[in-house]
Design goal:
The complex is a heterodimer. By secondary structure, chain A is mainly alpha-helical. Chain A is built from seven helices and no strands. Chain A starts with 15 loop residues before the first helix and ends in a 5-residue tail after the last helix. Chain B starts with a helix and ends in a 6-residue tail after the last helix. The relative contact order of chain B is 0.14. The chains are: A mainly alpha, B mainly alpha. Chains A and B meet through helix 3 and helix 7 of A and helix 1 of B.
Chain lengths: 158, 59
Amino acid sequence: MSETVVEQAGPEARPAAAAFVACFLAWLVPGLGHLYLRKKERAAVFFAVVLGLFALGVASDGAASLFEPRQPLSFLATLDNLATGPIDLVSRYHTYGGIVFALPGEDGDPRRTDLLNRLRSRVRSVTYEYGTIFLLTAGLMNILLILDCYDIASGRKN
Amino acid sequence: MIRSHFVNLVIFSGLVAVFFAFLTQSETKDRLRVILVLGGSMIVLSLIIAYVMYPFPLR
């Protein structure tokens, strides 16, 4: 008696290098990892949503987070902002007038005072809270997109 | 710059709902359902929480 094997069309597993490339592209530009994996529709939507949220955050006077050694949780917020990819540099330049990732340690440091003054001028804006949340959410979304690219590339998801 | 709390709420809810609809679903019908349920829930629950908080003054 012969057995009939029915093959189901499942997700396609790709080489490990493809997963790494997809994750890197997803970090570089939101949606680019999905485009690389030939998910054009999702790529377009993710690009529009994440960049739209990011642009809204910058326009609403949101501030990119700075790592402050005395506040350990600020490390997570800074890491989350960085997950948006190179466009994070735009919000940092917009907020602090330069590319800065951490507050200088000493209280009397003039650079620290300058950065805090720039941040305080942002906090006075009525939409500062919204803007900052939009920027953080864009970063969290891109983390999920990077993980999604890994799942698709490794064949766990279609 | 959008100063309206409600407009910000609707935009944020809409974008988050669209994001998760495309992330978790592959069929158009399922995506629409997620957008309506998730987006609607975020807006309605936020309004309920805001209404419940209204009687409590800041100080």
